[in-house]
Design brief:
By secondary structure, this protein is mainly α. It has helices spanning 14-22, 24-32, 41-84, and strands at residues 3-4, 10-11. The protein has two domains: 10-39, no CATH class; 42-91. Strands 1-2 form a two-stranded antiparallel ribbon. The chain is elongated and about 70 Å long.
Length: 91
Amino acid sequence: MARKNEYDRYIISASEVGSYVVCPRAWHLAQIKDQRFKETRRAQKGEELHEEWATDYGTAVKLTRQIRMIVSLLLLCILIVMLTSDFGLRP
């Protein structure tokens, strides 16, 4: 939960932000309503789904970075070829 520092400003931890980003509803229940989930089959399934989502999200981020790098290198190669060749313009 947000707390005040010595300068009377609210401080929010990185883990709280991460919890909110992953599941705002779970964060709300835990932080605002002070309700913790019960260890039920539905809760276990929810945890599994959250873990699967987090893994998929991490994979998507890595793939996006790799695709950007490949496209950037490809464009750089095309630019180098264009700048170093005369495209048959010389007689």
